[in-house]
UniProtKB/TrEMBL annotation:
It comes from Edaphochlamys debaryana. CDD domains: WD40. InterPro entries: eIF3i, WD40/YVTN_repeat-like_dom_sf, WD40_repeat_CS, WD40_repeat_dom_sf, WD40_rpt. The keyword Cytoplasm applies. It is found in: Cytoplasm. This is Eukaryotic translation initiation factor 3 subunit I. It comes from the Eukaryota. Component of the eukaryotic translation initiation factor 3 (eIF-3) complex, which is involved in protein synthesis of a specialized repertoire of mRNAs and, together with other initiation factors, stimulates binding of mRNA and methionyl-tRNAi to the 40S ribosome. The eIF-3 complex specifically targets and initiates translation of a subset of mRNAs involved in cell proliferation. GO terms for molecular function: RNA binding; translation initiation factor activity. Keywords: Cytoplasm, Initiation factor, Protein biosynthesis, Repeat, WD repeat. GO terms for cellular component: eukaryotic 43S preinitiation complex; eukaryotic 48S preinitiation complex; eukaryotic translation initiation factor 3 complex, eIF3m.
Length: 324
């Protein structure tokens, strides 16, 4: 694997995300400015300037014309993706954690953290086709029981939401009423990341309990468990093979006292079905905070506590070797 090493952030990465075609890559970090890259050659295309706090998550529209970001500065912002111009801003009283567009892009789900006397909450916005018609008031808001919402996804033809939380919980919500429909504890510690399979039948979760788990979207039943012995900050599923890749490592506070090899800072590949590890990719000298597969499955990207984004293109052996 021959990685592109992308340096556009001075602080830890929080999320990397490809657009639908896979030719563009957005990286979010704690240094206020998301960056846009070419995933083909690693060229930096631009930045999105305006936030005053860490950017936790982002989403990209189907046609790659707009970018949505959620930030610790208590705002969600819509950007013109090609030019970097800010188009709209939603203001909250709490830090905004996760954002996700619905199928068809008629709605936008936003989660906010507990802050002062406010509880964690989920907010549903109407997402206008024309930015001039965009309302900054949520169509529906409901409070969440104890546990910060780290990720949110739309399911069941936009009728329901699933959210991942601290305390290892998954929850399902009715979008029309905000009613809690289902709650399961699937991890023993906080869920740091959750990513959906291409067919939307299951999700993979990454947790501080040192495991990643494959979970059925309908029943919340744990299908597979991948054990690493280190904190798992992020995990992704290959759209090409039955492979999952996950990243993490020891606690960031211990990084300066430990060698990179001992810290477990590699991207680790597991067989999706057999749960066996078959490869590791080194490079970061701090924990991997976020990881994403290219839509083609022919490359993957990692973002680390060290502030670097690494784009890895697979060698020929990856396609020809039978691992199991």
């Amino acid at each position: 694997m021959r990685p592109y090493l992308l340096k556009g952030h001075e602080r830890p990465l929080t999320q990397v995300k490809y657009n639908r075609e896979g030719d563009l890559l957005v990286s979010c970090a704690k240094n206020l400015q998301p960056c846009l890259w070419s995933s083909e050659d690693g060229r930096r295309i631009g930045t999105y300037e305006g936030h005053n706090g860490a950017i936790w998550t982002c989403d990209i529209t189907w046609d790659s014309d707009r970018l949505i970001t959620g930030s610790a500065d208590q705002t969600v912002r819509i950007w013109d993706l090609p030019t970097g111009k800010e188009l709209c801003q939603f203001r909250h009283r709490e830090p905004c954690r996760a954002v996700k567009l619905s199928a068809g892009e008629r709605f936008l789900a936003v989660t906010s953290d507990a802050f002062m006397e406010s509880q964690p909450a989920v907010h549903i916005y109407n997402f206008a086709e024309n930015i001039e018609d965009q309302s900054t008031e949520p169509a529906l808001t409901w409070n969440v029981p104890k546990g910060r919402c780290t990720r949110v996804f739309w399911t069941d033809c936009n009728r329901k939401l699933i959210t991942s939380h601290d305390y290892g919980k998954l929850r399902r919500w009715d979008v029309e009423t905000g009613a809690l429909l289902q709650e399961e504890t699937v991890h023993e510690d906080a869920i740091q990341d959750m990513q959906m399979s291409p067919d939307e039948s299951h999700v993979i979760t990454a947790s501080l309990d040192k495991t990643a788990k494959l979970i059925d979207i309908e029943s919340f039943q744990v299908l597979k468990t991948y054990k690493t012995g280190r904190f798992v900050q992020s995990a992704a599923m290959s759209p090409l093979f039955d492979h999952v890749v996950m990243g993490g490592g020891q606690d960031a506070s211990q990084v300066t006292t430990t060698a990179a090899q001992a810290g477990g800072f590699e991207a680790r590949f597991f067989h999706k079905i057999f749960q066996e590890e078959f490869g590791r990719v080194r490079g970061h000298f701090g924990p991997i905070n976020t990881i994403a597969f290219h839509p083609s499955g022919r490359s993957f990207t990692t973002g680390g506590e060290d502030g670097y984004v690494r784009v890895h293109h697979m060698d020929l052996d990856y396609y020809t070797t039978k691992f199991f």
